[in-house]
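Section 5: illustrative case.
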C-alpha cells in the first residue's frame, strides 16, 4: 500500500475495509467481528490507519487490530491499567503499559467482556490516562 499513515475519516475506514477483504479468511472475519464489537461499545469511536494497521481511538488510542498468519492481535495502548476480570488479555502480559488479546482460528471472544474492556479504555482516556481501579489478574 502506498499510503503510510492516515488520519481519521472515510479513507481510514476504507483502508480497514480493504484489509478485512484482503485477508479473506478467518482472520478477516475475526477482525470484522472485533471491529463491530468496538463500534457497539463506543458508537463514537474514530477509525484511523497508522503503522499500516487499523487503529480505534476516542480521546486517545483504544486499541489496534493486527493480523498475522496464525493470530489476530488486538493491542490495547493502556491495557495494563484496565480491569480484566475475565482474563481476555493473553499477550504482552509483561509490558508495563500495553496488553493484547491474541485470537487464534476457531476461538471465540466473550463479546460482553471485550466491550467492557473497550469502555474501560474509553473511560481511562477520558480521565487523562489515570487508572481509577485495580486491574484484574
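Designed sequence:
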Amino acid at each position: 500500500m502506498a499510503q503510510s499513515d492516515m488520519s481519521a475519516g472515510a479513507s481510514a475506514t476504507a483502508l480497514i475495509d480493504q484489509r478485512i477483504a484482503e485477508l479473506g479468511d478467518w482472520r478477516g472475519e475475526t477482525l470484522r467481528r472485533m471491529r463491530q464489537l468496538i463500534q457497539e461499545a463506543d458508537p463514537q469511536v474514530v477509525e484511523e490507519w497508522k503503522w499500516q494497521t487499523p487503529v480505534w481511538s476516542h480521546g486517545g488510542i483504544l486499541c489496534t487490530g493486527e493480523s498475522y498468519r496464525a493470530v489476530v492481535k488486538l493491542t490495547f495502548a493502556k491495557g495494563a491499567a484496565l480491569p480484566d476480570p475475565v482474563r481476555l488479555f493473553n499477550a504482552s502480559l509483561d509490558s508495563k503499559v500495553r496488553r493484547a488479546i491474541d485470537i487464534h482460528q476457531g476461538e471465540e471472544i466473550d463479546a460482553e467482556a471485550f466491550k467492557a474492556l473497550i469502555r474501560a479504555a474509553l473511560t481511562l482516556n477520558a480521565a487523562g490516562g489515570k487508572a481509577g481501579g485495580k486491574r484484574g489478574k
